[in-house]
Amino acid sequence: MSELDLVKGCLREDQHCQAEVFRRYAGKMLAVCLRYARHRMEAEDLLQDAFIKIFDHIGQFESKGSLEGWVRRIVVNTALKKYRQKSFKDEAIGIDEGFDLSLEPSIYADLHEEELLNLIAQLPDGYRVVFNLYAIEGYSHHEIADMLDIEESTSRTQLLKARKLLQQRIIDLQKIAV
Amino acid sequence: MNRRPNPIDDAFRSKLAHYAADPPTHLWEGIARQRNLRRILYSRRRERTLLAAALLLFVYASVLTWYLQQIPPTLSHFPVAAGASAPLQKPTGNPSNSTAIANPVTINSTSNKSANQKLQVVDQLPNPLGSVESLTVQLAETLENWSEENPFHPSVTALSALQVSALPLALQQLTQEPPVFFDQSKCAAFTDHKPRFFFDVLASPDVTFRRIQPRTKDDKTYADSRRKTEEGRYNYSVGLRFSAVSKGGLAFRAGVNYSEINERFELPTNTRIVITYDPDGNIIGSPDTIVEKFVTNNRYQTLDLPVMLGYEIALKKWTLALNGGAYINVHFKPKGEFLSPYDANRPVTFSNTEDTENQQPPAFRENLGVGWYGSLGVQYRLSPRLQVLLEPHVRAYPHSFTRDDFVTQQKYLTAGVTVGLRHQFAL
Questions:
Q1: For position B245, what pLDDT does the model report?
Q2: Average pLDDT rounded to a whole number, residues B182-201
């Protein structure tokens, strides 16, 4: 069934089409939610809220881009709405001196997806959101500042702090493995 | 904008950008259930809106009709006795602006009524037909000419069945009939049909009867626990009410009402046994058992718009009233804590909005819909414009306060005695 047929079916409140949309995109979108949420249950709640919004507003989907891209935007926005207000007040702190990113690239290659997700989940809310938006979704600091209603400098700071924490935890993981 | 490559970003992006996790099967069931619930609520909301609109329209139409019937009649609404000595005056002003008197008619010349039964006002009325005699003659001629020119037209056959020549005569007879309106010589009966208007200030201590019922058999234990851990406290309602009462005693009332239901939630959390010893190590008295409890006061606030009809019987200084109607809920705010439906030993904060902070789904409805109200009232007139009233009443909300997807239904019936002051005023 084509994307257009699925959208039309969802507009008719056809449950088979809604189930098909869920089946096609739920896995990828759950992975997106896992990156933004603190734990799996929260991610599942986010995904559920996002899909309810998707079916509520599917009439607003314009066939200019892919349905997957539109679905992903809704999922990310749902996650952002949850963390937008409360995540940044206590986390906008300065960059530590001596911040070093020199780690062997092979170290990252050895990490599995679940391990990476766990590392992200352990980040404070603000760090996690900014890191996701910048490093994985590909938004600029200017866009992130607009989306989260924060200063660009805050976004940069959060990203650097997130990277440093991730680096530290990856090193810790390596130590444990050794 | 060019980005500087970053090994951490690259590592996470390459592995997670297109990563897919396995969604649990219950997730789709939850989405489908919520979607169905929303559909049901949406359709019910639409039904409720239509019902409310119809009700308001009906009330508005009823009040308007009733009010118009109460307007005191003026002389111009009634016929004037034939042969009245004072002829009606011609309208003043520029006659060219008045089409009503632009074309005086000739009815008087054909009327066979006696001269003293003719009114000068007739001369001033416009004649929509112009000269009836000439018109009827013209009509008859036109019909004859047309039927000669179109002898095979189906209409001609039909017209031939009529006595066309009789038509002018019939019209002429019609115009010569005395106008029925002018022959009536009844006089208007002027009585006071004005409605009376009242403004009431009301307050009532209430007693509530709560019913908690499980939606399924599995929830029976939870419902029992709720009943055991919660008890009613004080309740009250205050309101303002506008009443319009017809001379016949029919009353329309509308206003605003605030109600509060208060309950106490007690959950034993710990039991301590206190044993007191004397210096020699002997137990003094019997051990005390102290039960530590988690206690909180729950509150349900409602704001309603009462709309009701009533009937009043006045007996000198006393007035008896019977009222019935609807309480349209416009705001509902529950606040407090009760047992968690998922963990019977843990209290949870409840609300009718989503608690994102605590991941707590809303337990209560945002709006209670329509409640029903009935009362018997007694009023005593303190002064010509001031009455004191006493009104035992019953109010019930047929819908559960909790949402349809919550494990228990929670319904309330409230009874009380309203006391108030009623001020009569004139519009």
A1: 92
A2: 66
Which residues, in sequence order, are CB contacts of A114 under 8 Å at separation 6+?
none
CA–CA gap between residue B299 and residue B184 (Å, rounded): 68
Per-residue pLDDT band at A57 (split at 50, 70, 90): confident
Per-residue burial over B355-379, b if 16 or more Cβ lie within 10 Å, else e, is: eeeeeeebbbbeebbbbebebebeb
Considering only CB atoms, B8 lies closest to which of A28, A44, A163, namely A163
Contact A136, A119 (CB under 8 A): no
The distance of A15 to chain B (nearest Cα, Å) reads 8
| Closest listed residue to residue B411, CA positions, set B210, B193, B230, B256 | B210
Q: Are B328 and B307 in contact (CB under 8 A)?
A: yes
Cβ A58 vs Cβ B52: under 8 Å: no
3-state secondary structure of B286: strand
Is the CB of A27 less than 8 angstroms away from the CB of B21?
yes
Contact criterion met (CB < 8 Å) for B12 and A135 = yes
CA angle B199/B200/B202 to nearest 5° reads 160
* ipTM of this predicted structure: 0.83
Q: What is the dihedral of CA A118, A124, A126, A127, to 10 degrees?
A: -60
What is the rounded CA–CA span in Å between residue B337 and residue B420? 34
The gap from C-alpha B234 to its chain's centroid, in whole angstroms, comes to: 29
Q: Using CA atoms, how far apart are residues B366 and B243, in angstroms rounded to an integer?
A: 29
Residue reference for tokens 């986010």 = A46
List the single best residue of B3, B10, B12, B358 to mutate versus A (max A Cβ within 10 A): B12
From the CB of residue B389, how many other CB atoms can be counted at a distance below 10 Å?
A: 20
Half-sphere exposure of B346 (CA within 13 A, CB side): 6
B39 lies within 8 A of chain A by CB:
yes
Helix or strand run (H / E) with residue A39:
none
- CB-based contact B168:B136 (threshold 8 Å): yes
Q: pLDDT (tens digit, 9 = 90+) per residue, B205-252?
A: 999 999 999 988 878 888 888 898 899 999 999 999 999 999 889 999
Please tell me the distance from the alpha carbon of residue B42 to that of residue B332, in angstroms, as a whole number: 18
8 Å CB contact of A140 and B1: yes
Nearest to A32 by CA among A117, A108, A115: A117
Residue of B nearest to A86 (CA): B357
Supply A116's token pair. Answer: 């990476």
Q: Does B281 touch chain A (CB under 8 A)?
A: no
Tokens of B330: 């416009």
Q: Please write the tens of the pLDDT for every residue from B129-188.
A: 455 556 556 666 766 676 666 666 555 555 555 554 555 555 555 555 555 554 444 454
pLDDT band per the 50, 70, 90 thresholds, residue B270: confident
| Chain A partners within 8 Å of B356 (Cβ) | 82
Hey, are the CB atoms on B7 and A30 less than 8 Å from each other?
A: no
**pLDDT exceeds 50 at position A4:** yes
Cβ <8 Å between B15 and A116 = yes
Of A26, A101, A109, the CB nearest to B23: A26
Q: Which residues of chain A does B27 touch, with a Cβ-Cβ cutoff of 8 Å?
A: 26, 44, 47-48
What's the pTM? 0.42
Task: Report CA B198 to chain centroid distance, whole Å.
Answer: 19
- Is the distance from CB of B398 to CB of B414 less than 8 angstroms? no
Nearest C-alpha of chain A: how many angstroms from B26?
10
